[in-house]
């Protein structure tokens, strides 16, 4: 698998995540192309969006400056609203603009490098925490959506924890929700777990809570798109039912995310903008309409898990227990 996102000769090369499990790359050379790629989920996952935003500003800074660059930055940051990392990546690169295009590129590359290091630290810290909470035996883990190498620059957050545990021989299996409507679980997490040889089963989203209730899972580990100041967590739609089920079953619900996903400026989950996507993502499956013409759809892309259901948020720097 190529790296999720790379800077090559002034352009951005992305693994096209709409095509997975087929591996294809897409090169974008303008901010308009990048905004389109972000909206279509060619590049997705909060930390990868932060990297894309930062490199997008590096691309724009080669030809634009001042108010024009700032307007472009605002447009890029607004391409998707829920993952805070996109706006964070854009503003970090933009802050370097007074130093010229090379300084902007250096700031953007630093966003990528820091994410790669953060993911490894999160993976190790999360693995240690799960050993404390669940014991040293091989664990049965449940995850949702894709919080792996393809959602970051490399290694992953929730799947970074899985990778760290797997390297220590401490994963019995992973249950991966398929993650309707765009199937990031089957198409992306499935690819990543298969590539590293982790035993896994993909389940329909509706099966997740009852699999937990049947005692088949030791812990839930997910990523996040934004963590509010009070510890409420926005993540892919379908995360909240897993948190409810984990709480009921008395197993840990762990959120693995870099510090850049923690948003002190958003007081709580109610203040997080939840992206609404096209109804056809729900109504059309494999190119065929699966509902009557008269049926409408509601397609929120994320949900909010309240802080009191979160056992811990694991970052590169700390283990935060918002419920305490
Ligand atoms: O719509 P997506 O695929 O961008 O949603 C991604 C998620 O919800 C991930 O779980 C989250 O961004 C964490 S990625 C490390």
UniProtKB/TrEMBL annotation:
Substrate binds at residues 44-46, 80, 184, 235-236. SUPFAM superfamilies: NagB/RpiA/CoA transferase-like (SSF100950). Keywords: Amino-acid biosynthesis, Isomerase, Methionine biosynthesis. Pathway: Amino-acid biosynthesis; L-methionine biosynthesis via salvage pathway; L-methionine from S-methyl-5-thio-alpha-D-ribose 1-phosphate: step 1/6. The keyword Endoplasmic reticulum does not apply. It comes from the Bacteria. The keyword Cell membrane does not apply. InterPro entries: IF-2B-related (IPR000649), IF-M1Pi (IPR005251), IF_2B-like_C (IPR042529), Initiation_fac_2B_a/b/d (IPR011559), M1Pi_N (IPR027363), NagB/RpiA_transferase-like (IPR037171). The record marks 145 as: Transition state stabilizer. The active site is at residue 225. It catalyses: 5-(methylsulfanyl)-alpha-D-ribose 1-phosphate = 5-(methylsulfanyl)-D-ribulose 1-phosphate. Its EC number is 5.3.1.23. GO terms for molecular function: S-methyl-5-thioribose-1-phosphate isomerase activity. Belongs to the EIF-2B alpha/beta/delta subunits family. MtnA subfamily. Catalyzes the interconversion of methylthioribose-1-phosphate (MTR-1-P) into methylthioribulose-1-phosphate (MTRu-1-P). This is Methylthioribose-1-phosphate isomerase.
């Amino acid at each position: 698998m190529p790296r999720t996102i790379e800077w090559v000769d002034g352009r951005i090369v992305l693994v096209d995540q709409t095509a997975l499990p087929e591996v294809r790359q897409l090169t974008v050379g303008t901010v308009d192309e990048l905004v389109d790629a972000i909206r279509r989920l060619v590049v997705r996952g909060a930390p990868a969006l932060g990297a894309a935003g930062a490199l997008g500003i590096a691309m724009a800074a080669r030809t634009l400056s001042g108010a024009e660059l700032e307007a472009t930055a605002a447009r890029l940051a607004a391409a998707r609203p829920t993952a805070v990392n996109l706006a964070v990546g854009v503003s970090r690169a933009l802050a370097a603009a007074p130093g010229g295009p090379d300084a902007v590129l250096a700031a953007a590359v630093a966003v990528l490098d820091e994410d790669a290091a953060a993911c490894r630290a999160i993976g190790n810290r999360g693995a240690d925490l799960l050993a404390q909470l669940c014991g040293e035996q091989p664990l049965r883990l449940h995850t949702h959506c894709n919080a792996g190498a393809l959602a970051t620059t490399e290694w992953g957050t929730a799947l970074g924890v899985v990778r760290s545990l797997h390297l220590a021989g401490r994963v019995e299996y992973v249950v991966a929700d398929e993650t309707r409507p765009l199937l990031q679980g089957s198409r992306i997490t499935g690819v990543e777990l298969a590539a590293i040889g982790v035993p896994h089963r993909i389940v329909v989203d509706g099966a997740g809570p009852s699999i937990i209730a049947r005692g088949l899972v030791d812990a839930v580990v997910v990523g996040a798109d934004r963590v509010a100041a009070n510890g409420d967590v926005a993540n892919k739609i379908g995360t909240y039912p897993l948190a409810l089920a984990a709480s009921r079953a008395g197993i840990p619900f762990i959120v693995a995310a870099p510090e850049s996903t923690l948003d002190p400026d958003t007081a709580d989950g109610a203040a997080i903008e939840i992206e609404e996507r096209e109804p056809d993502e729900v109504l059309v499956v494999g190119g065929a309409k699966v509902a009557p013409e008269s049926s409408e759809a509601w397609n929120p892309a994320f949900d909010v898990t309240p802080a009191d259901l979160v056992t811990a948020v694991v970052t590169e720097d700390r283990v935060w227990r918002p419920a305490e």
